[in-house]
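Student: I would love a firmer grasp of how sequence relates to backbone shape in proteins. I am handing you a single protein, as its sequence and its fold in token form. I am told such tokens are a discrete way to write the fold. I hope you can help me see how the letters and the tokens relate. Take your time, and here it is.
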Amino acid sequence: MDREKVSSTNIEEMGYNPSSRTLEVKFCSGRVYQYYDVEPEVYDIMRNSASIGKYFGMKIKSNYKWKRVDNE
């Protein structure tokens, strides 16, 4: 999945696949996670949020199923 760099102290990159509704997040630690069944409008709000990390923590982290996808 293509990701774009974002301005955040915790998140380095993020990308979204609208056909599978999958959000992929690369954290500054290098770890990559996918979050499933994320609505397109939720991704758009996150992308345009003044604090991407804060929005992620409040709206994404505990509300969607996820899987770590990097090379642990």
In short: Residues 52-60 form the longest helix (9 residues).
